[in-house]
Amino acid sequence: MDQRLVVITGGGHGIGRAAALLAGRAGYRVCLLDLDEASAADTAARARGEGAPAAIGLGCDVTDESRVRAAVDTAVAELEAPPTGLVAAAGVDIGGVAHTLSPADWRHVLEVNLTGSFLVAQAVLRHLVGTATPGSLVLCSSPAASVAFAAGGASAYAASKGGVSSLVRTLAVDYAPHGIRVNAIVPGPTETPLMWAGVSEQDRARYRDVIRAEVPLGRLADAEEPARAALFLLGRESSYITGSLLVCDGGVLAKGSISI
Predict the structure, then answer these.
(1) SS3 for 77?
(2) What is the rounded (10 degree) CA torsion for 73, 64, 27, 173?
(3) Are 220 and 192 in contact (CB under 8 A)?
(4) pLDDT by residue (tens digit) across 56-90?
(5) For residues 91 and 68, is the Cβ–Cβ distance under 8 A?
(6) Do 248 and 186 meet the contact criterion of CB atoms below 8 Å apart?
(7) Number of Cβ within a 10 Å radius of residue 28
(8) CATH 3.60.15.10 correct for 5-247
(9) pLDDT single digits (tens) 127-142
(10) Which region is the signal sequence (predicted)?
């Protein structure tokens, strides 16, 4: 019986859902955490259909330490396996230039994207270290951790993802002696609900054309593309990779902003 268990946050939608379906096909047991419990449960059912030996979906606010710990404990008990993997894909973005951004919105973005990643990593690490089990944690950073978005107004999001990138490097060094690897994917523009948060339906086609013109590969990613990068980092093929940021952004970070 395959005892690999991966915990995936933001598992009801987008990259998290795509990662869950790929994990199911790869034979992982899967625990999906999402604020939207119904979507998490639906993804779990789909993951079982893809081949997961077992999968559950739980409602969970990743900013709530007690709920995160309880959810991971529930996954271990119900799926009868220690969590050997994590994909922390839960995220939010609230735009606004700094002088207009409310402190409440600033805190919310950091709490979900950075503190949420820390809390779920902490819960999984406690099980791994407590059972002397090697594992692989994959967090989600962003090109915004390294460069400012041309559209602007992403100070909270960029700060949160910069924190995720730094957290990855620190955890990788701290937990390498335990046989635990920690990395991040760095997705570029991707067709997910988060990509279009705050953009009206009628404006999406126009913005999609603008983004395509800015991305060297000339398109947005399908959610499965960064999810495949996450599955690579979970698996044995990446056994000597830790503390890395795997960029899967269509060439965004490679491109200069000046056209002559």
Answers:
(1) helix
(2) -90
(3) no
(4) 999 999 999 999 999 999 999 999 988 999 999 99
(5) no
(6) yes
(7) 30
(8) no
(9) 999 999 999 999 999 9
(10) none
Residue 153 binned pLDDT confidence (cut-offs 50, 70, 90): confident
Instruction: Report yes or no: 15 and 43 within 8 Å, Cβ to Cβ.
Output: no
Residue 16, C-beta contacts closer than 8 angstroms, at least 6 positions apart? 8, 9, 10, 32, 34, 43, 87, 89, 90
Looking at the annotation, which residues are catalytic?
157
Decide: 85 and 66 in contact? Cβ < 8 Å.
no
b/e sequence 223-235, b meaning 16+ C-beta within 10 Å: bbbbbebbbbbbe
CB 168 within 8 A of CB 121: no
Question: Which residues does residue 181 pair with via DSSP β-bridges, in sequence order?
Answer: 136
User: What is the sign, positive or negative, of the torsion defined by CA atoms of 81, 225, 35, 115?
Assistant: positive
- Answer yes or no: are the C-beta atoms of 28 and 2 closer than 8 Å: yes
Q: How far apart are CA 54 and CA 81, in angstroms?
A: 10
Token pair for residue 251? 């060439």
The two three-digit tokens of residue 9, written as one number = 């946050």
Contact 57, 64 (CB under 8 A): no
